[in-house]
């Protein structure tokens, strides 16, 4: 009897261990796990890929080369169509080769700002998006996980992603509206992980003889706003918060503008505030303009003698909501900064 009891106890422990192992394996296959793996693969892997990009107009073919070597990131994005434009990023320096304009532009960019511009999913994404794995399917001769990221409300777009089972790299992605219609698509014809990528891969194919060179690659000095007003949102769409505020000098404008960036961790909206030169009535908020190009929406309005413009890869209702909610406060007493911090805490 004791031997049988011991045997039954051992059997139960074996089944328990197996159940735990299966549970851990199932957790590892959660769709959020695949999104995080994809983030890691895109930012830390070496790869060379060719893809088609569609955004409501003609399809553009491009090549992306990405390398991480000794902690330094290098990227090269090449248009394979008639423009032959190339963009090469090394650390914080971005060099733009524009053959159609006979110009080379050298700029300073944040080291976190990738040429690929792919959204980064995180643990907070599930608060505002439903994440599901619809199927495991074959795509372009690869086993993939078809993951959907659907917005829980009207303020953000959703995604469909075909993630390679072996490398966790996204072989196809679609940005979708609230009805599930595709408004932007990236589809890779080839996506090859590489152990080593030589420096020669980051040299342009374009001959720059006779080109004009324009340089602004030094880290920019922080411009000072000419106004003492600080702009803050009265209310934000659910999940959005202010991520950054800075003064920016934009081409064609005599004075710096106040720029704010709002994000829910995945989608983001940039807002620009400038003095409205043609302003006639301090309370005029009726002069509004809306625009939509591909997956990007823009909304502009006049509030208290200032032009407020919001731009982002979000539905039109989102840029309208954020731009219309901004109000100005005097900066002298610091009350506006307190209001911003309170808004950030609430949302």
Tell me the layout of helices and strands.
Elements: H1 2-28, H2 31-44, E1 47-54, E2 60-69, E3 72-79, E4 86-90, E5 93-98, E6 103-108, E7 129-139, E8 142-151, E9 158-164, E10 170-176, E11 182-193, E12 212-216, E13 229-233, E14 241-248, E15 257-263, E16 268-275, E17 289-293, E18 296-303, E19 306-312, H3 316-324, E20 326-330, H4 335-346
Parallel strand pairs: 6-12
Antiparallel strand pairs: 1-2, 1-11, 2-3, 3-4, 4-5, 5-6, 7-8, 8-9, 9-10, 10-11, 13-20, 14-15, 15-16, 16-19, 17-18, 18-19
List keywords for this structure.
20 strands, disordered C terminus, outer membrane lipoprotein receptor (LolB), chain A, Phosphorylase Kinase, domain 1, single chain, 4 helices, 347 residues, six-stranded antiparallel β-sheet, twelve-stranded mixed β-sheet
Structure description:
By secondary structure, the chain is an alpha+beta fold. It has two domains: 31-215, Lipoprotein localisation LolA/LolB/LppX (outer membrane lipoprotein receptor (LolB), chain A), CATH 2.50.20.10; 229-346, Phosphorylase Kinase, domain 1, CATH 3.30.200. The chain has four helices and 20 strands. It has helices spanning 2-28, 31-44, 316-324, 335-346, and strands spanning 47-54, 60-69, 72-79, 86-90, 93-98, 103-108, 129-139, 142-151, 158-164, 170-176, 182-193, 212-216, 229-233, 241-248, 257-263, 268-275, 289-293, 296-303, 306-312, 326-330. The strands form three sheets. The chain has a twelve-stranded mixed beta sheet, with helices on one face. The chain has a six-stranded antiparallel beta sheet with strand order 14-15-16-19-18-17, with helices on one face. It has a two-stranded antiparallel ribbon with strand order 13-20. A hairpin with a 2-residue loop joins strand 7 and strand 8 (142-151). The longest helix has 27 residues, at 2-28. The protein is globular. The protein starts with a helix and ends with a helix.
């Amino acid at each position: 009897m004791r031997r049988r009891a011991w045997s039954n106890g051992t059997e139960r422990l074996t089944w328990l261990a197996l159940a735990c192992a299966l549970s851990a394996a199932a957790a590892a296959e959660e769709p959020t796990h695949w999104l995080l793996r994809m983030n890691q693969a895109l930012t830390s892997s070496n790869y060379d890929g060719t893809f088609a990009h569609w955004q409501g107009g003609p399809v553009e073919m491009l090549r992306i080369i990405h390398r991480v070597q000794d902690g330094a990131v290098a990227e090269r994005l090449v248009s394979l169509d008639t423009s032959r434009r190339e963009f090469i990023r090394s650390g914080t320096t971005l060099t733009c080769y524009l053959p159609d304009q006979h110009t080379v532009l050298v700029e300073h960019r944040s080291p976190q700002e990738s040429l690929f511009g792919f959204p980064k999913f995180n643990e907070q994404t599930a608060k505002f998006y439903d994440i599901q794995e619809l199927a495991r399917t074959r795509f372009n001769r690869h086993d993939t996980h078809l993951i959907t990221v659907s917005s829980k409300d009207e303020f953000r777009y959703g995604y469909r992603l075909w993630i390679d089972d072996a490398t966790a790299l996204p072989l196809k992605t679609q940005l979708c509206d609230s009805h599930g219609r595709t408004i932007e698509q990236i589809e890779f014809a080839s996506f090859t992980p590489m152990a080593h990528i030589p420096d020669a891969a980051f040299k342009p194919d374009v001959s720059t003889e006779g080109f004009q060179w324009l340089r602004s690659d030094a880290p920019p000095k922080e411009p000072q706003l000419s106004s003492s007003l600080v702009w803050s949102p009265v209310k934000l769409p659910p999940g959005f918060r202010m991520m950054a505020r800075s003064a920016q000098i934009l081409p064609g404008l005599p004075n710096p503008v106040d720029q704010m960036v709002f994000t829910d961790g995945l989608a983001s909206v940039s807002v620009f505030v400038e003095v409205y030169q043609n302003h006639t009535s301090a309370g005029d908020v009726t002069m509004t303009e809306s625009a939509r190009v591909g997956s990007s929406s823009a909304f502009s309005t006049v509030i208290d003698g200032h032009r407020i413009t919001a731009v982002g890869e979000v539905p039109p209702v989102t840029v309208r909501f954020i731009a219309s909610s901004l109000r100005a406060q005097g900066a002298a007493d610091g009350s506006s900064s307190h209001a911003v911090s309170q808004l950030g805490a609430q949302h």
